[in-house]
Structure formats: C-alpha cells, structure tokens
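Re: the request from the purification team.
They wanted to know what the chain is likely to look like in 3D before they choose a buffer screen. I agreed to run a prediction and write the result into the notebook, where they can find it.
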Amino acid sequence: MTSAVRRAGQHAGRLSLLAFVVLLVVTGVGGIDALGDRMLTAGASRMLADAEPGARSVRVVAAQADDAAAQDAQIRDAIASAFSGSEVDVARRTTDDLAVITPADEEITLRVLDDERITELADLTSGSWPQGPGELALTEAAAQRLSIAIGDTLTLTHGGLEDASLTLVGFWSARDPLDTAWLGDPSVVSGESDGAFGPAVVLGGSLDVASASPTVTWQITPATFDLAAIPLLQRALTTLDALPDDVDPKRQDNTRVRGDLGETLQRQADAVAATRGLLTAPLMLMALLGVLVVGTVLTTLVAARREETVLLRSRGASVRRLGSSAAVETGLIAAAGAVVGLALVAGLGAITQAVGVTPAAWLTAGPAVVLASGVSGILTARVATGADVVRAEDLRSDAGARTCRTLLPPTLLVTGVGALATWQLFALGGVTGPGGAADPLATAAPALLLIAAGMLAAMAAGPMASIGEHALRRTAGIAPILPLRQLARRMGSTAVAILCLTLAASSAALVLAAPSAARAAEQQALLARLGGDVRMIAEEGLDVAAGDVATLPGVTGAHEVLRTSMTIGSDTALLVAALPEALGLDEPLPPNTAAAIPACITRTLAERLGATTGTTFTARIRSVARPATFEVACVVEGLPGVGAGLGVATDPTALSDAGAEVPPNELWLRSDTPHQTAAQLREQATDPVRILTASQVSAAPVASAAPMLLTAGALVTAALGLIGFFAASSAAARARRGEQIVLRALGLPTGRQRALRIGEHVAVAAYSVIVGAVLGAAVAELVLPTVLGMGS
C-alpha cells in the first residue's frame, strides 16, 4: 500500500487531471440535464398557464339525465379511469339559456349557471350571493346592458314555469376572466355572448327546477404538471374519447368530449423535444470528449511510467498484477472525481431547486470510472508484455497514412449514421415522430454531424500536411518543411488533439448560431399562428369591423381576414383572403382573369400540385357551393395564418367578383400593446370569439432555456477540448524526444527546435479552431431551422 501511494504521488499531476476531467464531464452532463429538466418543466408549465382558456382543459358535456347523481358518478368514474396515473381536478357546472322578461317588459335570453366554485372564481361587488331557488346574482356588465338593479325581478316565460320569477340579489365580477373555468366566454367581461345575457349565478340545484334540460359540463384540468405528465395526459385524452360510447352509447344525453388541451400538450411536447434536441449536441460532445481526454491522459500516464513498469516486470511482477493495480488506482481516482461531480450536481440542484442528481449523471459517472479503470489496466498490461514497443517500420515515411486509414472506418460509420439521422430529421420535419414523441435518431442529428465533421477534419490533416510538404520540398530552409513532415508522419496523437479542439470549436459555433435560429423559428411560428400581434377568431362571423378597433390605443393596423378550409383534389388546404399588406405580399395580386382567381400558394402546395406561376387548379371552398378556379400568381415559402403547410392566399375582392362571397371571420391586428388590446377586445366582444396573442401560441417559455444551457455546455466542451488538445500535444512531444539529439547533431539549435514545435502546435490549433468553427456554422445552418421548427 505504501509503495502504491508513493508511486501515485510521483504522478499526482496526471492523476489529478484525470479526476478533474471525470469531475468536469459528470458535472457538465448531470448539471445541464438537471437544470434543463427544471427549466423545461417551468417553461412548459408557463405555456399551459398562458394558453387559451379552452386549451387548458378538456370537458365532458351532456344533457342532464333524469338521475343526475347517478350520471355524475358514472362520468366521474370514467374520467378517473381514463386519467389513472395523472393528477387532475374535475369540476361540475350546470348551465342553460332561459327565456325571461325584464322589468322593462323586454324578452331576452338569460344564461344561467350553477357552479360550486363560484366563490373561488368571482368576487361579489355588491348585494349578496343567492340564498334561495328564486334568487340570482348577475355580472355588472350584463346588468348595465339590461338596465336592471338589485331587487328587480326577471320572469320566466317557458313551459309550466311561466310567471315564475328570479330576483336579482347581487352583482359579481370574475377575478380572472381568462381563468380556464370561464372557457373564454366573452359575456364574463362584456355581459353578453351570442345574444344571451349573463352569466347569472343561481343557487346549487335551482336549475333542476327552473330548466327543462340543463347542460352539464365536467371540466378536467391538470392539477400538477411536470414533463412526465405530458405523455400521460396525451394517453388519457385518447382514452377519454371513448367515454361517450361507454356511458351514453345511445346518445340519449348527447354526451360528448370538448376542449383543446390536446393541442396545448402537443405544442409543449414539440417545444420540449426541439429544445432537448438542441441540447443533445453538447451532451454528446461532452461524453465523446470525456472519452478522448481520459484516454489521452491515461496514455501519457502509462508512457511516463513505462520504465518503472518494465523494471517491476523484470523483478517478477506478473502482467495481471501490474494491470489490475493500475486499474484499481485509476479507478479510485476517477471515482473520487465522479463523487465530487455528483456532489456538485446535487448542490446545484439544491440551490436552483432543480431535480438534483438525475439518471443521466449516474449514467455518466459509472461508465467514466469503468472506462478509466479499464483503459489504464489494458495499457499497463501492454507495456508489461512489451506490446507497446514501436517497431522500425512504424517510422516509415507513410506512417501518417496509417492514422488516416485507422480513422477512416469510424469516420465513415459516424458520417453514415449522421446522414441517416439528418434524413430522418428532414423527413419528419422536426425531432418529433408521428406519435408526437421525440425521435432519438432525429434528435441526435446535430451532434452526429458535428462529430463526423470533427473526425473528417482530423483525418484530412495528415494528407494536407503531406501535400504541403511535397509542395515546399524544393524551398530553402528547414521550416516549414520539418513541422509539416512531422505532422504527415506522426498523426496519431495530433489527430486526437485536432479532434478535441475541432469539436470544442464546432460546439461554440453551434451555440453562437442557435439564438438567431431560435428567433427565426419563433417568428415563423408566430406568423403562422397569429398573422399579427393579436388575432381574433369569430365562430360565426365578425361582429366588429377593422375600422372599429383601429382606433384602440396601441393598435397600428387592423385587417379583416377570411381564413377557411378548402379542398384541392384529395388534399385539404387553408384559404386566407386579405389585403396584400396583411398577407406580407410585396405587390398586390393581379386582377381576375376571365376564368380564374389570382392567388399566391405555399411552396409545399406548389410541390404537391406540381404547380408553377401561371398554373390553374380547381378547389372547393368551405360553405361555397360552386367550385372556384385559381391561377398561381406567385409561390411563397409560407403564409400568415398558415405557415409552410398547404395554403392559398388571395384578395377578398377577387373572391367576391368570382361569386365566392364569404364574409371575413378573423381580425389580425398590429399593436404596440398586444395584451392591452386583447383585453379591450374581450370587453367589447358579444359573440363567441377566440383572442390570441403571442403568449397563447409561443414556445418561447421552453425555448428560452436553450441559450443558457447551451452556453454552459459550450464552456464545459471548450475546457475538455483544451485539456484534450494539450494532453495529446504533450503525448506527441514525448514520443519525439529522441529526435532532439539527432536534430541538434545536424546543427539545429535547441531554441530553434522549440520555436518550430511551438509553430507546429499553433498551426494545428489554428487549423482546428477555424475548421471547427466553419463546420459548426455549416451544421447549424443545415439542421437548426428544422430542429427548432417546433411544429410550426
């Protein structure tokens, strides 16, 4: 034991470097994985919280059965079965539209609701909550529209309940009109929706008497959220689709499932998969560099101990004992580094409230210790048996070509896998597969391409040096011929040095390119989903004109838009009819021809149809009986409100002139204060509408985690690359110590030799950094737009 400690102390520097490298890899991989999990969870939670009210929950809707209690129990049991394993809140609400007469003898429709959560969702502004079956509380906005006050009565006018009355006892206002419980109902703010006034709150159970057929809604909302909940909830929603068939097979109660929670979950899944796909590159590069650096450090350690190992072998030590002793020693050192790394990851998790030591950290620490132990034992055993002795033929003039041939098979393998991964990425159009889950092969595409590029750069260095040597052979002087010759003939350790630094530089280039690519992807997604800063979607036609909202504070532009589906052959596309400035077209479309409507189409549709400028095609527009013929006036990459999918854009006047008169159903607004504008639109809306801003459709809460995590990964990768470069360069210099005496005998001073070696290292470093940066930028340009598409 004393001898082993003394031997380890003689090489404390290299052993400390080994521990530090293991620590760096474990901390880098584990820390980025833990922080990434926390930041992605927080971002996905924010996406859910910012989604439209109707897109944060799913609902089971039915007509109330004769036995309401049995119906409620049956549906709750079915919901619990579908969402087994997911924590959800289930709330029951009963609603109906009642015909009543106001004190002014005006017959109106009153929307009445019975919800046990009302005191949590709303504040009483005056009066009191209903205490009996003949009382109701109304929103102040609805009361103002009806010109009624507390104490006034409303008379029911239907069926056997004629002349029954409801007394107004209080006013209330919603605490948050965007709460998922209100489902975006505009009457909560404006007091009216689709001709019905309200909502009016009645005492629990009152609707069972006042209404002949109330509608019952069971609203299902996620109670807690983490990334693991996304696939569980998606599977639960798929199971929930079968609920109407299970509880109401004959549709006696018109049971159905409504809600857009599934769309929100898919947006979250796409955003998380895209961001993780981006983070996969630094994690894989860290792991690969860790392997290279650990191997290089151990190679130099074993080489430094060669004389000592040979001496022990000559004194009777067995090869097995020497190998196992070296393996145990380096295993303990690597384990110490891994333990410190895991402790740092745990501490980082405690400080940042992250997950802590994730499985990725353990999966990195264990193999790192095993790798260090195994490599040290094998290399020491080779020295003990004399298998590491350099033979004379290994110093031939073509020895460097052997490195190239050695690197060729793994380079071709990695390049082939990288090409396959890239093909998969482009075929899927992102990193998510058809089922919505991340595709492992597509996710690994950026990292595999960077690794392949780095290996190609390392493999090409030897032949390039050889070409340079032959080109300069007739020049006078020993420089730069000698450094080029050394590179061409001794590329083993130099190739590792080039690979380490190239991977570090390419990772840095990827990090620098990622923010601009992310911004471009975000803008493309917002263009496809919004068409402006605020988008108002009417279910049954607009009840407000663009001119009416153009004067709102902050609004800088407003356009009425028709956005509807159309059928072209067997394909379904989106038709967008608006003025050229709303569509982002540089020039107005030409006037109608005698036979066709001029239109711009997306490149995706053009490829689908085999269309070019001047091509005509026939399509059926939804709600228009007669087919319409369009002529392609231009082909664009994407359209507002459509994105890069199948889309057609034209002028509304052109549609009208061709006899396809369809009223606009959306408003696209430009606003300096989009959230304020959206709130003002809700206050004015009296028909069912959806009002969207960037916060409802953006993936930025998740994607914003990428820059910090990528930067951290790039720093760790750069540190590993530099360590690997200097360790490999040191190993190469050690292997060439015998040349110094020969060169000195030939008249080359020691100082001159040192200057040539420094120049050689600087040239190799410059080559690695420049090539790595160029290749990294090229890979970023190639794959990042697709990786960050996020389902846009």
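For the purification team: The longest strand covers residues 88-101.
Please add any questions underneath this entry.
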